[in-house]
Amino acid sequence: MDKIDRTNQEKPVLSFGWVGVVEGFRRCLPIALGVFIYGLVFGVLAQQAGLSIIEALLMSGLVFAGASQFAALKLWTIIPLPTPEIILTTLIVNLRHVLMGAAVQPWFASLKPWQRYLSVFFMTDENWALTMSEFKKGKRNGAMLLGSGLALFLAWTGSTLAGRALGSVLQDPAKWGLDFAFTAVFITLLVGMWRGKSDILPWLIAAAVAIAASQLIPGNWYILLGGLAGSLAGAWRK
């Protein structure tokens, strides 16, 4: 039964079961369709970068991080393969997950270790935003993050396979408008997370810092710096 533990500094106590997995999977299906579209783009670009179907599928299944995978593909055609640069780029892009993990930690504190770590493996920007929004609305089943992540995992790996197989047909994803799918999904997520005028300041600060960093600092540091600036602004506001 969902409840709040009043004796533990008001930390929420979550349940974890198949109901949450199914609910998370179902709620994330519309987002998964968007993910499938820009997963096709990744598959096409993977084909153009010379990755085999198995290599592209393994990257999507093991890394499971679209932004860093796109960044890595830009370096994949360099000979010899710049492995340290690829690792560093992936690390920088994915450091935002530290902030996301910190945000979800108070909610997951009551779950068993295997439930927490299995769920966060499938944590992406999209299902993190969806799950946090549901928690704030009163939902208390921690398995929603896992269920929604599974929906995205199937969409991402499936679209990678399809895009890699159709790479010779969809040679220019921008011609079909597929390159905008990534942006469209995140705009939708922002609308869903909007809580009122109090969000304006941290959002503006995050955007301003990210834009400035993208112009002044080489690489993908703007992703981490924008997220960190917005998080600090939100903490300062409270």
**Which stretches of 5+ consecutive residues score pLDDT under 50?**
1-9
Q: How many strands appear in the DSSP assignment? A: 2
What share of the residues lie within helices?
A: over 70%
Strand content: under 5%
Number of H- or I-type helical stretches: 11
Give a quick account of the main beta sheet: strands, pairing sense, barrel closure.
2 strands, antiparallel
Q: Secondary-structure element order, as H and E? A: EEHHHHHHHHHHH
Spatial strand order of the main sheet: 1-2
Mean pLDDT: 82
Shape: globular
What is the first-to-last residue Cα distance?
A: 30 Å
Q: Radius of gyration, Cα only, in angstroms?
A: 19 Å
Global structural class: mainly alpha
Features:
mainly alpha, globular, 2 strands, disordered N terminus, single chain, 238 residues, two-stranded antiparallel ribbon, 11 helices
Written overview of the protein:
- Helices cover 71% and strands 2% of the residues.
- Mean pLDDT is 82; it is low at 1-9.
- Helix 1 (18-48) runs antiparallel to helix 7 (125-136), helix 2 runs antiparallel to helix 8 and helix 3 runs antiparallel to helix 4 (83-94).
- The protein has helices at residues 18-48, 53-62, 66-76, 83-94, 96-108, 113-121, 125-136, 143-165, 181-193, 200-216, 221-237; strands spanning 3-4, 12-13.
- It has a two-stranded antiparallel sheet with strand order 1-2.
- A hairpin with a 7-residue loop joins strand 1 and strand 2 (12-13).
- The chain is an all-alpha fold.
- The protein is built from 11 helices and 2 strands, in the order E-E-H-H-H-H-H-H-H-H-H-H-H.
- The radius of gyration is 19 Å and the shape is globular.
